[in-house]
Design goal:
- This protein is α+β, with helices and mostly antiparallel strands.
- The chain has one domain: Nuclear Transport Factor 2, Chain: A, CATH 3.10.450.
- 40% of the residues lie in helices and 44% in strands.
- A six-stranded mixed beta sheet has the order 2-1-6-5-4-3.
């Protein structure tokens, strides 16, 4: 019984440590998008990850999306494009090897030729921890959102 109580005392600390690691995961995703570091972004994805698009009503390997997104990363890296990805969450469930995150993504971009955009996207993500590293297993871009939706998630 004594050992069970000791274990329960440390459990919240372990979960807090995992949340910090997951926050670091999202910070790395944001950094990779902002700097155009395609290899770093790709390294945040499980090789068998799935992208689900609610707007397009499609599901396909995230690897296919990476092929499509590579030019944007290259343009960002070269300075022809500015990109950013920010995340806010409404619910976060995790243990030491899995996490389910629900919230929003704000993706912003601008190009040298004057194109610019802001996309607010309701998001669910399933992460797994493999060999000490968090990886996205499923990214579900549920639907478009609004700046008002985004502001409701302000920390």
């Amino acid at each position: 019984m004594k050992y069970l109580l000791i274990l329960l005392l440390f459990l919240p600390l372990n979960l807090q440590a995992e949340v910090k690691e997951i926050d670091a995961y999202w910070a790395e995703v944001s950094r990779a998008v902002k700097t155009g570091d395609f290899q770093a972004y790709k390294a945040t994805c499980h090789p068998e990850a799935v992208l689900v698009s609610g707007n397009k009503k499609q599901s396909y390997p995230l690897a296919k999306a990476l092929v499509r997104w590579k030019k944007e990363f290259d343009d960002t890296k070269s300075g022809d494009r500015k990109s950013s990805a920010k995340f806010r969450f409404s619910s976060r469930y995790n243990d030491d090897t899995t996490a389910h995150e629900t919230g929003m993504l704000l993706y912003e971009f601008s190009t040298k030729d004057g194109k610019a955009g802001k996309e607010y996207v309701f998001l669910e993500a399933l992460l797994v921890k493999r060999e000490g590293k968090w990886l996205i297993m499923m990214e579900y871009q549920k639907a478009s959102g609004t700046v008002e939706d985004w502001e409701k998630l302000r920390e």
